[in-house]
Amino acid sequence: MTEPRLIEITPATHGVDLDLVYATSRNLTGKAIYKEAHCLLLEPAETRLRKAIEIARDAALTLRIFDAYRPREAQQVLWDFLPDPTYIAEPGRGSNHSRGTAIDLTLLDASGSELDMGTGFDAMTIESEHFHPGLPGPVQRNRLLLLGIMHAAGFTHIKSEWWHYELPGSRALPLIDDSASGPLRLM
Predict the structure, then answer these.
(1) Does 61 map to a domain?
(2) How would you classify the pairing of strands 102-108 and 164-166?
(3) Where is this site: Transition state stabilizer (predicted)?
(4) Catalytic-residue membership of 161
(5) Measuring CA to CA, how many Å separate 101 from each of 37, 165, 175?
(6) Relative to the CA of 176, which of 84, 99, 102, 116 has its CA 20 to 30 Å away?
(7) Residue 104 annotated as binding?
(8) CATH number of the CATH domain containing 176
(9) Cα–Cα distance measured from residue 183 to residue 36, given in angstroms and rounded to the nearest whole number
């Protein structure tokens, strides 16, 4: 039996939009963490992502991906910036991003505009919780739409971030050896 491998996700191969913010300064740290933008997922997560892409397409929507596989060193950079386990996995415990099984994303409408989710990606606030009360009806519907697509594809969510989805049972998997990331280098 072969071990699962990291698979690159691109607009050409998967029909998604990529806005890999950790390769830019448009993230919570205000600086680029990756030198190059590459979107990678472990094979079982990539298979479920393909299902989510198909479900979204049937609703005239496109997935925009902000982050997927994250080397442990990048996780450490995020933890050093915001050491709050509500939003950032403690590096010793490990993030499911560092297992290649988590993905951060949103939805685009047919015109290519992001659906309003009430907060931006990486907004580490209580308003980013999936079911935060008091958000306008259209925001609640958009979050539920994303949740429905991702759950139907076999992902699960975490309470604190509307954009974060992962394979169920991911914690049981080992962290990926950072040498497996190939072209994904840190700044």
Answers:
(1) yes
(2) antiparallel
(3) 70
(4) yes
(5) 18, 9, 10
(6) 84
(7) yes
(8) 3.30.1380.10
(9) 7
Condensed to tens digits (0 to 9), the pLDDT of residues 129-151 reads 999 999 999 999 999 999 999 99
Q: 97 among the known binding-site residues?
A: yes
**Does 58 carry a binding-site annotation?**
no
What is d(CA 76, CA 68) in angstroms, rounded to the nearest whole number?
Answer: 16
- For residue 4, being part of any structural domain is answered with no
Q: Which domain holds residue 106?
A: 10-181
SS3 31: coil
- CA separation (Å) from 70 to 39, 123, 147? 9, 18, 22
When divided into structural domains, the chain yields a total of 1
pLDDT digit string (tens) for 32-86? 999 888 999 999 999 999 999 999 999 999 999 999 999 999 999 999 999 999 9
Q: Which residue among the candidates 3, 36, 73, 161 is catalytic per the annotation?
A: 161
Cβ within 8 Å of residue 29, ≥6 positions away: 77, 78, 81
The whole-model pTM stands at 0.92
Whether residue 3 lies inside any domain: the answer is no
CA distance 11 to 2: 27
The phi and psi torsions of 42 (rounded to 5 degrees) equal -65, 145
